Amino acid sequence: MNAHDMSPTKRDGLSGFTGDIERLEAIFATWEETPQGAVGAYKLAIEALNAEALRRLIRALKTDPAALAAMKSAIADEVVYAVLRRHDIIKASLNERVELALEGVRPMLASHGGDVELVMVKPPSVEVRFIGACDGCPASALTFHAGVKKAVQEACPEITDIVQVKGMGNESQENSVRFVSPFALSAKGNWVAAGLLSEIPEGSVRSMVLGSEKVLLSRNGSTVTCFQNACAHLGFPIHDGEIENGIITCPHHGFQYDLSSGECLTAPEVQLQSHAVRVIGPKVEVRISV
Question: How far is residue 140's CA from residue 119's CA, in Å, rounded to a whole number?
């Protein structure tokens, strides 16, 4: 794909616009330094022009009470909000600040195979829920008070009550998040359907192609890992390798990998490329790393 392939089409949500931008930026990243610099300067000039136009428009409309009310209502639209935030025309919403606070503690939770999700923001109260390994963990109370609660209160002093919601609430088992892999936090990109949990053999692997990526799914109970189906040695697929006690052996040159982490036991300095995984009810989804 090249830049000429990106013809304008109708977009309904923010992800459609940001997806186009990310794909174009990926193309620009392959260019030489000089054209890259020209594109970067052009982008900054366009953004400066748009930001100034938006500021002048808002200043003019603020004098009309009806127009001011309409603008406040329009900010609820995710595209409008994202653009105005991009140009620092409006301050971060309370929801965004809470999410950023939670993002700060997620690496710590991920190291234990867990995560936290924002359930509700209703000032001065916030509800959060632990998922993955942190749900029901004996140390979850300590993690909540020392990690999550402290982070939210520091970022959002107007929030005085942070409540930990237990379990999956009123969500149906069909749509409940049962597991989120530790790799989910650093990955970017859209979640892609990867079949059913029951289709991955217990204690074994399932190979498949998601988009253009060849992946390897491994299952241990409701815990699922996903890696690029390529040996870190020479890139050959490993799905036909022998598996014993959670260790897969590359059928080509004998390199061994721990399917729970992707760690290479033969050459510890390398490992399998991981992709984020989550299990929602009976379904498995993968987020391809970019």
Answer: 17
Question: Do 276 and 226 meet the contact criterion of CB atoms below 8 Å apart?
Answer: yes
Assess whether 158 and 183 both reside in one domain. no
Name the one residue in this structure whose structure tokens are 């809470």: 98
Q: pLDDT tens-digit profile of 160-187?
A: 888 887 654 434 444 444 445 544 444 4
d(CA 22, CA 188): 11
Cα 121 from Cα 227, distance rounded (Å): 35
Question: Would you say the C-alpha torsion 179, 182, 183, 188 has a positive or negative sign?
Answer: positive
Q: What CA–CA distance (Å, rounded) separates 276 from 184?
A: 4
Q: Which pTM does this prediction carry?
A: 0.42
One-letter amino acid at 68 equals L
Last residue of a domain, one of 86, 106, 141: 86
